[in-house]
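Q: C-alpha cells for this one, please.
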Amino acid sequence: MSARHFLSMLDYTTDELLGLIRRATELKDLRDRGVLYEPLKNRVLGMIFEKASTRTRISFEAGMIQLGGQAIFLSPRDTQLGRGEPIADAARVMSRMVDAVMIRTFAHSNLIEFSENSRVPVINGLSDDLHPCQLLADMQTFLEHRGSIAGKTVAWIGDGNNMCNSYIEAAIRFDFQLNVACPEGYEPNAALMELAGERVKIFRDPREAVAGAHLVSTDVWASMGQEDEAAARLRLFQPYQVTRALLDGAAADVLFMHCLPAHRGEEISEDLLDDTRSVAWDQAENRLHAQKALLELLVEHAHYA
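A: Here is the predicted structure, written as C-alpha cells:
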C-alpha cells in the first residue's frame, strides 16, 4: 500500500507541517475572496464516526464540498462495522470506492489497522490517543496571530488526554516548550514525553505552568467515553480551571485556545471565551482550512497502489 496517511503529527516532517499550515492560510484567503477552487472534483471522502462530532464533521464535509468533491457520513449504526465486520475487510472494500477515509474513533489501533489495509489515504479525525487535525488548526491560528511558535512557551492545563498528547507531538515538530499542569495520575502518554525530552515539563500548579506562556490551552475534563468518571474528575480538576486571572500570570501577549465544545464553569470560567485573549472561534474555523490543505495534499497528489 503506497497511500500516505495522517494519523499523527509525527508522520510528517517539520517542513511538511509548516507547508500544510501555509497552504491552509492560502486556501483561507481564496475562500475569503470568493475564489472558486475545486481540485478535488469527483473525488469522494468517506467519513467513519464512532464518536459524536460537530466541528470535525462540518469541517471535513464542507471542506470536501468547497474543494469540488463529496463526503459520505458513516456511523456504526449505518454500516456493517457496527455489526462486527472486521476493520481490515471494511478498509479493503471502502478504499476501492472512495479517494480518502477520515475516521473518528476510540481505539487508535483501529486507525492503524484500517490504514494498513487501505489503498487510499486515512486521516485521524480523533482517537483516544491523538487529535492531530486539531493541532494543525491550532498551529495555524498561532501563526496567524503571533508568527512562529518556535522557541515560545505553551501551557496545557488539565487532563493529559489525546489533545495534550498531540500538543507534545507539536512541541517536538514545531520546537516550543510545553508546560503541562495536571493532577497526579492524569499525565500524558509516557512514551511521547520521553521522546520530547526537555521540551515537556509536568507541573501540579497551573500558575507555575502558565508563567510566561505565550499560548494557554485546555480541554474538557471528561472526554467522550469517560462519562462515568465525570463527577470524580469534576472534583479533582477544580483547581485547574482556566480563568482570566490565571491568564494574567502568562505573557502579556498570551493567546487562549480551546478545541471546543467548552463546558463553561468547569475547565474554563464562564467569561473566558469572551476575553480578548481568546482565539477559540478563529481556531475552530481553521479546522476547515487546515483540513482542506491536508485533503488537497493527500487526495490530489496521491499515488494509489
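A few notes: The first strand starts at residue 44 and ends at 49. DSSP finds eleven helices and nine strands in the chain.
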